[in-house]
Write a structure and sequence with these properties.
The chain is α+β, with helices and mostly antiparallel strands. It has helices at about 20-50, 70-95, 205-215, 225-235, 275-280, 285, 300-310; strands at about 105-110, 115-120, 125, 130, 135-145, 150, 160, 165-170, 175-185, 195-200, 240-245, 250, 265, 270. The structure holds dinuclear copper ion. The site of dinuclear copper ion (CUA) has 9 residues, from loops.
Length: about 325
């Protein structure tokens, strides 16, 4: 089964934050410097090969043995270039990774194979991380199981998520939009489906999003959705998943309180449509083999009711 990646740009060469911009600028400068050196060396070698190649008449070029001036010059020039690149790297490190000088604005936890985001407001969500534009946020990055790596190239530096050793980095977005990213450290079977979506909202829109996501889930409508909640309870889905306001508060797997407000399922593996949600519930292992969500062998009626219940969690 081939699946389309979410339509997001994620080139490190299109930075949208001061942190990412400083890294992109260092990369471009280094690339240009190295390209000039590479072209210069290649041209000099090519010229020498042609100009001084062995000729039938045995005409040898003059043999030079040692020249202090030239040696000093071709030692000093590389030292100057390397020193310049070193100083620029130090400056970039300071700009892209300033000291973590306050309590984190956001806690992100890498799990096999999804991302949990916790806000100081108490909001917990998964995989689709909203941030307000124009505001640097300090992120505390953790891992629940193995080493992951959080990388949203347009917004922040790359950072390892190490179990038992929180790391800190800054993230921000200059303009509203959806920024893609992915786990950048091999972490097991579904490493490739550990995608990240950062939604940068205008500050007012972010406040509205946060308020909506903080609200507990409302009671399901009678009929299929209500039956779906019974299936959710009976099948012990609540042993791993939280649905705030409905008596489910375990945070081992993604929080589902507002599942229907998210764009994708399974950390980007499928679009969040009723058909895909039902397919996921019918057999998650068919869509994301190795996923920690087992195939519960639900009946078609149970799948429909559960999809109706979860699909209404806006
Ligand atoms: Cu998580 Cu690779």
């Amino acid at each position: 089964m081939t699946r389309e990646l979410p339509a997001t740009t994620e080139s490190p060469f299109a930075p949208s934050s001061p942190f990412a911009a400083s890294i992109a600028s260092l990369f471009s400068t280094t690339l240009i410097v190295c390209a000039i050196i590479g072209v210069g060396v290649t041209v000099a070698i090519a010229y020498s090969l042609v100009r001084f190649r062995a000729r039938p008449d045995g005409d040898e070029p003059p043999q030079v043995d040692g020249n202090r001036k030239i040696e000093i010059v071709w030692t000093l020039i590389p030292i100057a270039i390397v020193t310049w690149l070193f100083v620029m790297s130090i400056e970039t490190m300071a700009r892209s990774d300033p000291p973590a000088d306050r309590a984190p604005d956001l806690v992100i936890v890498g799990h096999q194979w999804w991302w949990e985001a916790r806000y100081p407001s108490g909001l917990v969500t998964a995989n689709e991380i909203h941030i307000p534009t124009g505001q640097p946020l300090l992120v505390r990055l953790e891992a629940a199981d193995v080493i992951h790596d959080f990388w949203v190239p347009q917004l922040a530096r790359k950072m390892d998520a190490v179990p038992g050793h929180p790391n800190f980095f800054w993230i921000s977005a200059d303009t509203p939009g959806v920024y893609g990213g992915a786990c950048a450290e091999y972490c097991g079977a579904q490493h490739a489906w550990m995608r990240i979506q950062v939604d940068a909202d205008e500050p007012a829109a972010f406040v509205a999003w946060q308020a909506q996501e903080l609200a507990p889930a409302s009671a399901p409508l009678a009929g299929s959705p209500a039956r779906g909640e019974s299936v959710f309870r009976d099948q012990a889905c609540g042993n791993c998943h939280a649905i705030a306001g409905r008596g489910f508060d375990r945070h081992i797997a993604p929080d589902l309180t507002h599942l229907a407000s998210r764009n994708t399922l399974g950390a980007g593996v499928a679009e969040n449509t009723p058909a895909e949600l039902a397919a996921w519930l019918r057999d998650p292992q068919a869509i994301k083999p190795g996923s920690k969500m087992p195939d519960f062998k639900l009946s078609d009626a149970n799948v429909d009711d559960l999809a109706a219940y979860l699909g209404a969690l806006r």
